[in-house]
Specification:
The protein has 2 helices and 3 strands, in the order E-E-E-H-H. The N and C termini lie far apart (50 Å). The radius of gyration is 19 Å and the shape is elongated. Helix content is 35%, strand content 28%.
């Protein structure tokens, strides 16, 4: 993991087309602005994990069996 220090108003560039800017710092909370192409999905980690878990659950064997029964 790369750890960088940034102050309010400073930014990072990722992969030449994603800019992450520190917008505000209040106590232990940091507000970030992310400028990325529309085709690049950006999620909070906890939301991303929920999406991944839902996708795994949807592809379980029981779900596939239910779908097969619907198609018969």
């Amino acid at each position: 993991m790369l750890a960088l220090s940034r102050k309010k108003g400073e930014a990072l560039i990722v992969n030449n087309n994603i800019e992450i800017t520190v917008l505000e710092i209040k106590g232990e909370q940091v507000k970030l602005g992310i400028n990325a192409p529309k085709e690049v999905p950006v999620y909070r980690k906890e939301v991303y994990i929920q999406i991944q878990d839902s996708n795994k659950e949807a592809t379980n064997t029981d779900g596939l069996a239910a779908l097969e029964n619907l198609l018969k």
